[in-house]
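Can't paste images in this forum, so I'm doing it all in text. The chain is below; anyone willing to post the predicted structure tokens underneath?
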Amino acid sequence: MIRTPLPRHFCLAVLCLALNLSGAFAAPVTDSPEASPGRQAELLNLVNTAVFEVVVEKPQPDSLVYERELTWEMVPYAIRTDKYRSIGTAFAISGTELITAFHVIDLGEESMIHDRYFIRDSEGKVYEIDQINAGSNERDFLIFTVKDRTFTDYFEFEAHFETNEPVFSIGNAFGEGIVMRNGLILGTVPEDEAGRWNRLKSSADVNPGNSGGPLVTRSGKVVALVTHKADNILYSIPASVIQEAGRSELRYRLRTNYSHLILVNTANRVFETTVPLPAHYQAVQNRIVRAAGEDYDRAMEALFDAAPEYLTGPNNRYLLNTSVSSSFPQMEFVDKDDNNWYLSDLKTSSYTLPDDGRITLASVANFNIYKISRPRTVPLKQIDTEPRYIMDTILQNIRRERTLARNDKYRILSFGDPVEVGEYRDALGRSWIAATWLIEFDDTVMIMYILPLPDGPAVISTLRTSSQRRVYEWDLRKLCDHIQTAYSASFEGWDEFIALNAEPAVRDIPGFLKDFKFNWRPDAQEVSVESGTVSVGAGKEVFEWTPLSELFIAPCWYQSAEQLPIEFGVRRIFLSRDSRNREYINLYKNIKPDPRLGSSSAEDWNDLVQEKYPYNEQPGISAKDNAGSVGAILQTDPADPGVLYTLYLSMENPQDEENLSRRFNALKTGIRIINNN
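Text version of the structure:
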């Protein structure tokens, strides 16, 4: 899961980024009770010439396709015509330097949209930030220069202040202009982690956009840098805390919580790095982001190393006794109560596609898991391997909207082409298509991992801010490693899938399917399947097979005996005459259960050993359901009594027991057990 900083109350930065408000300067406003007219005019002039907006460029392209044309007239004129988005405040502190809050220009993150930062003056002129001279994310300040601009007027710091002293907060409130508001100093409070310095508290009011502005005395001296508001109290970084920080390097330090969707255990970790100064702001950002990414990799690997042992430890008994029973993918996860690994049973919603297609969806903690069953008229290659077609199919059947102004909503029909397409080969050897879409208007990315399957893909996706894309790609890859899914399709679908995987440029078949063989002969109405230790062959004397008959296999983890290695392979071969699954063959590799699974599992195993119904080769017919069935324990190797293969036949309108037995005996002649290990 994404690194989650411990509480630091940077709510102002988040809000000002989200508001998408105008950057136009308004006339400075002051409600100073006792300032002399001359001093007030002097201060207002200083505010007008030395306080600036911090802005970023609005994204120009919009790759999205909407159900109807966007009505921009609903957006206020000043906002829709502004080429920039206001994100905070900065002010001059020398003839060449300005200061703002670090979280306004967060060099610890790397947006795919906002990769350049600027200041804008009272005349609307814009200057790009240039060099970083000092800063600290913990102390929440950043001192920098801008290109092609110096300052004749600037603020001076004042380290001394007293409780109840009048002060003014100055900043770009709501992105609508520089505003001054008065208040009183209330005292100080130690910083949260270890009290290494004090934050200043005051009653001066602020709004989103004030972050990075000055807190000044009546004489116009800066006693603190505005950072955030909580419970109607303004918190600021005192001038002395800023002045005592060094200038030779920027220290970046972040205490973080680490977690992952499938784990219970979490970890706290401090990430630290330093960047020599002075340096260009993008070089500083690149150094921090690269170091943070490498540290995230190490932290998450350590988190998984500290989790309950995945397959070989004592917490695997349920996972080794479970496989998916439907075509919808399921996650392996650690249960919070007993720390055992399990296979999930996710609740799903279903959406109908034309021509017998379907989208099935489960949502877990901001991750979406889909199974797309392809419509009969759509080529498998298109639905399995074309990210834009897959994303468009989801958007056009599951509503997602953009809100432009107030409650003016527009349905999104397409994100356009992905900006990145790659491949991820998971721990099981399966090849996933990794695709990323950039959603420009709100600086987010849709990250999607696609697993091609015989009847349409399994898909995992998440929508995140673009600056977080790298950590969520890590999380998604680890989730892919722990997804189990069935391989299921009609006979004609299997033919397409095998042909698709025969194309070297498309996919490699994973190891557990290397020995898989499927052969469907429509002229003779014969089908044969071979996988691992077993093969099944059945002709029309068992069922009248058609191109729409279906094959279902569900690879899973299992261990045939304690002394044997754990394997990932096929234990079940399920052949159905049609999609209704009322007439079918089920061949299953049963393994003696771990004693820790309890008495019920042991009793089920004993029933198999004793060949009890329905595995006693005695046909049974239900007149009420007009259905019949018969099953048997197949001959196995006496040297390995921990494995029993069961064969089961079910059919509609069985006519009589003799007909059932005849079909079952014909089926048994097509079963071959290769070995039991």
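The radius of gyration is 33 Å. Residues 281-306 form the longest helix (26 residues).
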